[in-house]
Amino acid sequence: MTGYAATTAESARGTLALELRSVNSRFLDVQMRIAEELRALEPMLRERISERIARGKLDCRLFLVEGAAPATELNEAALAQLKALAAKARKSFPKAEDLRIADVLRWPGVVAGGASDERELRALAEGLCRRALDELVAARSREGAKLAAAVAERVAAMRQRVEAVVPLMPQSVAAYKEKLTARLLEAIGSADDERVRAEVALFAAKVDVDEELTRLRAHLGEVERVLKQGGAAGKRLDFLAQELNREANTLASKAASQAVTEAALELKLLVEQIREQVQNIE
Protein backbone atom coordinates (compact mmCIF):
# COMPACT_ATOMS: atom_id res chain seq x y z
CA MET A 1 0.00 0.00 0.00
CA THR A 2 1.08 3.55 -0.60
CA GLY A 3 1.78 6.19 2.01
CA TYR A 4 4.02 9.07 3.00
CA ALA A 5 5.16 10.51 6.33
CA ALA A 6 7.75 13.08 7.35
CA THR A 7 8.96 14.27 10.75
CA THR A 8 11.67 16.61 12.05
CA ALA A 9 13.31 17.42 15.37
CA GLU A 10 15.96 19.87 16.59
CA SER A 11 19.25 18.56 17.93
CA ALA A 12 22.49 20.12 19.16
CA ARG A 13 23.93 19.55 15.67
CA GLY A 14 21.00 20.93 13.70
CA THR A 15 17.62 19.77 12.32
CA LEU A 16 17.19 16.02 11.98
CA ALA A 17 14.62 15.00 9.35
CA LEU A 18 13.16 11.60 8.46
CA GLU A 19 10.89 10.71 5.52
CA LEU A 20 9.09 7.45 4.76
CA ARG A 21 7.57 6.62 1.37
CA SER A 22 5.69 3.40 0.69
CA VAL A 23 4.46 1.87 -2.57
CA ASN A 24 2.85 -1.46 -3.42
CA SER A 25 4.87 -4.68 -3.27
CA ARG A 26 4.10 -8.28 -2.34
CA PHE A 27 7.06 -8.40 0.05
CA LEU A 28 8.82 -5.98 2.38
CA ASP A 29 11.65 -4.16 0.60
CA VAL A 30 13.27 -1.38 2.65
CA GLN A 31 15.62 1.02 0.86
CA MET A 32 17.72 3.34 3.04
CA ARG A 33 18.98 6.74 1.96
CA ILE A 34 20.96 7.99 4.94
CA ALA A 35 23.63 10.65 5.21
CA GLU A 36 27.04 9.10 5.77
CA GLU A 37 27.49 10.68 9.20
CA LEU A 38 24.20 9.03 10.28
CA ARG A 39 24.91 5.57 8.81
CA ALA A 40 25.30 4.02 12.28
CA LEU A 41 21.55 4.57 12.84
CA GLU A 42 20.51 2.31 9.94
CA PRO A 43 20.20 -1.00 11.88
CA MET A 44 17.95 0.63 14.48
CA LEU A 45 15.74 2.18 11.80
CA ARG A 46 15.40 -1.12 9.92
CA GLU A 47 14.38 -2.85 13.14
CA ARG A 48 11.72 -0.24 13.97
CA ILE A 49 10.32 -0.40 10.44
CA SER A 50 10.13 -4.21 10.30
CA GLU A 51 8.23 -4.18 13.60
CA ARG A 52 5.37 -2.22 12.02
CA ILE A 53 5.43 -2.95 8.28
CA ALA A 54 5.09 -6.39 6.68
CA ARG A 55 4.61 -5.66 2.96
CA GLY A 56 5.50 -2.90 0.54
CA LYS A 57 8.51 -1.20 -1.00
CA LEU A 58 9.54 1.41 1.52
CA ASP A 59 12.08 4.22 1.12
CA CYS A 60 13.52 5.68 4.32
CA ARG A 61 15.42 8.97 4.07
CA LEU A 62 17.29 10.39 7.07
CA PHE A 63 19.35 13.57 6.86
CA LEU A 64 20.71 16.32 9.08
CA VAL A 65 20.57 20.01 8.30
CA GLU A 66 23.64 21.26 10.14
CA GLY A 67 23.12 24.20 12.51
CA ALA A 68 25.54 26.21 14.57
CA ALA A 69 28.38 24.04 15.85
CA PRO A 70 27.92 23.19 19.55
CA ALA A 71 30.52 24.30 22.07
CA THR A 72 33.02 21.50 22.47
CA GLU A 73 36.51 20.95 23.93
CA LEU A 74 39.35 18.60 23.10
CA ASN A 75 40.01 15.75 25.49
CA GLU A 76 43.74 16.06 26.25
CA ALA A 77 43.98 12.52 27.65
CA ALA A 78 42.35 11.03 24.57
CA LEU A 79 44.66 13.07 22.33
CA ALA A 80 47.73 11.81 24.21
CA GLN A 81 46.50 8.22 23.94
CA LEU A 82 45.89 8.59 20.21
CA LYS A 83 49.34 10.15 19.73
CA ALA A 84 50.99 7.23 21.53
CA LEU A 85 49.05 4.69 19.46
CA ALA A 86 50.03 6.50 16.27
CA ALA A 87 53.72 6.47 17.25
CA LYS A 88 53.57 2.76 18.04
CA ALA A 89 51.83 2.00 14.73
CA ARG A 90 54.45 4.08 12.89
CA LYS A 91 57.14 1.61 13.96
CA SER A 92 55.30 -1.25 12.28
CA PHE A 93 54.18 0.77 9.25
CA PRO A 94 56.85 3.43 8.63
CA LYS A 95 55.47 4.32 5.18
CA ALA A 96 51.92 4.95 6.41
CA GLU A 97 50.47 8.44 5.94
CA ASP A 98 50.26 10.81 8.89
CA LEU A 99 46.97 11.28 10.73
CA ARG A 100 44.85 14.09 9.36
CA ILE A 101 43.12 16.58 11.65
CA ALA A 102 39.74 15.25 10.51
CA ASP A 103 40.80 11.73 11.49
CA VAL A 104 41.92 12.95 14.90
CA LEU A 105 38.65 14.78 15.57
CA ARG A 106 36.61 11.70 14.59
CA TRP A 107 38.48 9.48 17.01
CA PRO A 108 36.13 8.37 19.84
CA GLY A 109 36.49 10.53 22.92
CA VAL A 110 38.75 13.19 21.41
CA VAL A 111 35.97 15.79 21.23
CA ALA A 112 34.40 16.23 24.64
CA GLY A 113 30.63 15.90 24.52
CA GLY A 114 30.68 13.93 21.25
CA ALA A 115 29.41 10.72 22.83
CA SER A 116 26.47 12.47 24.49
CA ASP A 117 25.62 14.13 21.15
CA GLU A 118 25.53 10.74 19.44
CA ARG A 119 23.22 9.33 22.12
CA GLU A 120 20.92 12.32 21.76
CA LEU A 121 20.91 11.95 17.98
CA ARG A 122 20.07 8.24 18.21
CA ALA A 123 17.20 8.89 20.62
CA LEU A 124 15.86 11.66 18.37
CA ALA A 125 16.08 9.45 15.26
CA GLU A 126 14.25 6.62 16.98
CA GLY A 127 11.50 8.98 18.12
CA LEU A 128 11.19 10.41 14.61
CA CYS A 129 10.96 6.92 13.14
CA ARG A 130 8.19 5.91 15.53
CA ARG A 131 6.19 9.07 14.80
CA ALA A 132 6.63 8.69 11.05
CA LEU A 133 5.59 5.02 11.24
CA ASP A 134 2.44 6.01 13.15
CA GLU A 135 1.52 8.41 10.33
CA LEU A 136 2.43 5.92 7.61
CA VAL A 137 0.50 3.04 9.18
CA ALA A 138 -2.56 5.27 9.60
CA ALA A 139 -2.41 6.29 5.92
CA ARG A 140 -1.96 2.68 4.82
CA SER A 141 -4.86 1.60 7.05
CA ARG A 142 -7.18 4.10 5.37
CA GLU A 143 -6.13 2.80 1.96
CA GLY A 144 -6.46 -0.78 3.18
CA ALA A 145 -10.07 -0.15 4.21
CA LYS A 146 -10.87 1.03 0.67
CA LEU A 147 -9.15 -2.01 -0.85
CA ALA A 148 -11.03 -4.33 1.51
CA ALA A 149 -14.33 -2.78 0.42
CA ALA A 150 -13.39 -3.34 -3.24
CA VAL A 151 -12.53 -6.99 -2.54
CA ALA A 152 -15.83 -7.46 -0.64
CA GLU A 153 -17.76 -6.17 -3.66
CA ARG A 154 -16.11 -8.73 -5.91
CA VAL A 155 -16.72 -11.51 -3.41
CA ALA A 156 -20.43 -10.64 -3.43
CA ALA A 157 -20.41 -10.71 -7.23
CA MET A 158 -18.72 -14.13 -7.19
CA ARG A 159 -21.37 -15.49 -4.82
CA GLN A 160 -24.04 -14.42 -7.30
CA ARG A 161 -22.23 -16.24 -10.13
CA VAL A 162 -21.82 -19.39 -8.01
CA GLU A 163 -25.50 -19.51 -7.06
CA ALA A 164 -26.47 -18.90 -10.69
CA VAL A 165 -24.57 -22.05 -11.75
CA VAL A 166 -26.47 -24.38 -9.35
CA PRO A 167 -29.77 -24.59 -11.32
CA LEU A 168 -27.92 -24.87 -14.63
CA MET A 169 -26.57 -28.36 -13.99
CA PRO A 170 -29.90 -30.30 -14.05
CA GLN A 171 -30.82 -28.38 -17.19
CA SER A 172 -27.53 -29.38 -18.83
CA VAL A 173 -28.05 -33.07 -18.00
CA ALA A 174 -31.65 -32.97 -19.30
CA ALA A 175 -30.54 -31.28 -22.52
CA TYR A 176 -27.84 -33.93 -23.02
CA LYS A 177 -30.40 -36.70 -22.50
CA GLU A 178 -32.67 -35.23 -25.17
CA LYS A 179 -29.76 -34.84 -27.61
CA LEU A 180 -28.57 -38.41 -26.96
CA THR A 181 -32.08 -39.83 -27.45
CA ALA A 182 -32.46 -37.96 -30.72
CA ARG A 183 -29.13 -39.28 -32.01
CA LEU A 184 -30.02 -42.88 -31.12
CA LEU A 185 -33.35 -42.56 -32.88
CA GLU A 186 -31.60 -41.18 -35.93
CA ALA A 187 -28.88 -43.83 -35.92
CA ILE A 188 -30.73 -47.05 -35.07
CA GLY A 189 -34.38 -46.10 -35.28
CA SER A 190 -35.05 -46.56 -31.54
CA ALA A 191 -33.97 -45.04 -28.24
CA ASP A 192 -32.55 -47.75 -26.02
CA ASP A 193 -33.58 -46.60 -22.50
CA GLU A 194 -30.85 -48.61 -20.82
CA ARG A 195 -28.14 -47.23 -23.05
CA VAL A 196 -29.51 -43.69 -22.64
CA ARG A 197 -29.55 -44.01 -18.86
CA ALA A 198 -25.96 -45.32 -18.78
CA GLU A 199 -24.65 -42.55 -21.04
CA VAL A 200 -26.54 -39.86 -19.11
CA ALA A 201 -25.22 -41.19 -15.78
CA LEU A 202 -21.66 -41.13 -17.13
CA PHE A 203 -22.14 -37.60 -18.46
CA ALA A 204 -23.63 -36.40 -15.16
CA ALA A 205 -20.65 -37.80 -13.25
CA LYS A 206 -18.16 -36.06 -15.54
CA VAL A 207 -19.85 -32.67 -15.28
CA ASP A 208 -20.75 -32.84 -11.57
CA VAL A 209 -19.46 -29.61 -9.98
CA ASP A 210 -21.03 -29.89 -6.53
CA GLU A 211 -17.60 -30.19 -4.90
CA GLU A 212 -16.24 -27.19 -6.78
CA LEU A 213 -19.25 -25.07 -5.86
CA THR A 214 -18.97 -26.13 -2.22
CA ARG A 215 -15.28 -25.22 -2.09
CA LEU A 216 -15.94 -21.91 -3.84
CA ARG A 217 -18.55 -21.04 -1.21
CA ALA A 218 -16.14 -22.04 1.56
CA HIS A 219 -13.27 -19.96 0.15
CA LEU A 220 -15.53 -16.95 -0.34
CA GLY A 221 -16.72 -17.27 3.25
CA GLU A 222 -13.10 -17.37 4.44
CA VAL A 223 -12.28 -14.23 2.44
CA GLU A 224 -15.19 -12.44 4.09
CA ARG A 225 -14.08 -13.64 7.53
CA VAL A 226 -10.50 -12.43 6.98
CA LEU A 227 -11.71 -9.04 5.74
CA LYS A 228 -13.99 -8.67 8.75
CA GLN A 229 -11.23 -9.71 11.16
CA GLY A 230 -8.88 -7.00 9.85
CA GLY A 231 -5.19 -6.73 10.64
CA ALA A 232 -2.38 -7.98 8.40
CA ALA A 233 -4.27 -10.15 5.90
CA GLY A 234 -2.59 -9.67 2.52
CA LYS A 235 -0.71 -12.97 2.35
CA ARG A 236 -3.72 -14.97 3.56
CA LEU A 237 -5.97 -13.30 0.99
CA ASP A 238 -3.38 -13.90 -1.72
CA PHE A 239 -3.45 -17.64 -0.94
CA LEU A 240 -7.27 -17.70 -0.95
CA ALA A 241 -7.30 -15.95 -4.33
CA GLN A 242 -5.11 -18.73 -5.72
CA GLU A 243 -7.53 -21.35 -4.39
CA LEU A 244 -10.52 -19.50 -5.85
CA ASN A 245 -8.78 -19.40 -9.21
CA ARG A 246 -8.09 -23.15 -9.02
CA GLU A 247 -11.77 -23.95 -8.43
CA ALA A 248 -12.90 -21.56 -11.18
CA ASN A 249 -10.57 -23.32 -13.62
CA THR A 250 -11.98 -26.72 -12.67
CA LEU A 251 -15.52 -25.41 -13.07
CA ALA A 252 -14.66 -24.14 -16.55
CA SER A 253 -13.16 -27.52 -17.55
CA LYS A 254 -16.36 -29.33 -16.45
CA ALA A 255 -18.74 -26.84 -18.05
CA ALA A 256 -21.62 -28.72 -19.64
CA SER A 257 -23.24 -25.72 -21.27
CA GLN A 258 -22.39 -22.30 -22.65
CA ALA A 259 -24.05 -20.66 -19.64
CA VAL A 260 -21.80 -22.53 -17.19
CA THR A 261 -18.73 -21.67 -19.28
CA GLU A 262 -19.64 -17.98 -19.23
CA ALA A 263 -20.21 -18.09 -15.46
CA ALA A 264 -16.81 -19.75 -14.93
CA LEU A 265 -15.07 -17.13 -17.07
CA GLU A 266 -16.76 -14.35 -15.12
CA LEU A 267 -15.57 -15.98 -11.90
CA LYS A 268 -12.00 -16.11 -13.21
CA LEU A 269 -12.15 -12.42 -14.14
CA LEU A 270 -13.40 -11.49 -10.66
CA VAL A 271 -10.70 -13.64 -9.03
CA GLU A 272 -8.02 -11.87 -11.07
CA GLN A 273 -9.39 -8.52 -9.93
CA ILE A 274 -9.25 -9.72 -6.32
CA ARG A 275 -5.66 -10.91 -6.77
CA GLU A 276 -4.62 -7.50 -8.08
CA GLN A 277 -6.13 -5.85 -5.00
CA VAL A 278 -4.92 -8.23 -2.26
CA GLN A 279 -1.29 -7.94 -3.42
CA ASN A 280 -1.48 -4.34 -2.19
CA ILE A 281 -2.98 -5.18 1.21
CA GLU A 282 -0.72 -5.37 4.27
Task: Give structural notes.
The protein has 282 residues and is an alpha+beta fold. It has 3 domains: 3-69 and 124-140, Ribosomal Protein S5, domain 2, CATH 3.30.230; 74-112, no CATH class; 143-278, no CATH class. 65% of the residues lie in helices and 15% in strands. It is built from 9 helices and 6 strands. It has helices spanning 42-52, 76-92, 101-106, 114-165, 168-188, 193-207, 210-229, 234-253, 258-278, and strands spanning 3-11, 14-23, 28-34, 56-66, 73-74, 111-112. The chain has a 4-stranded mixed beta sheet, covered by helices on one side. It has a two-stranded antiparallel ribbon with strand order 5-6. Strand 3, helix 1 (42-52) and strand 4 (56-66) form a beta-alpha-beta unit. Helix 5 (168-188) runs antiparallel to helix 6 (193-207) and helix 7 (210-229) packs antiparallel against helix 8 (234-253). The longest helix has 52 residues, at 114-165. The chain is elongated and about 115 Å long. The model has no long low-confidence stretch (mean pLDDT 81).
Fold topology:
Elements lengths: L2 E9 L2 E10 L4 E7 L7 H11 L3 E11 L6 E2 L1 H17 L8 H6 L4 E2 L1 H52 L2 H21 L4 H15 L2 H20 L4 H20 L4 H21 L4
Parallel strand pairs: 3-4
Antiparallel strand pairs: 1-2, 2-4, 5-6
Helix pairs in contact: 1-4, 4-7, 4-9, 5-6, 7-8, 8-9
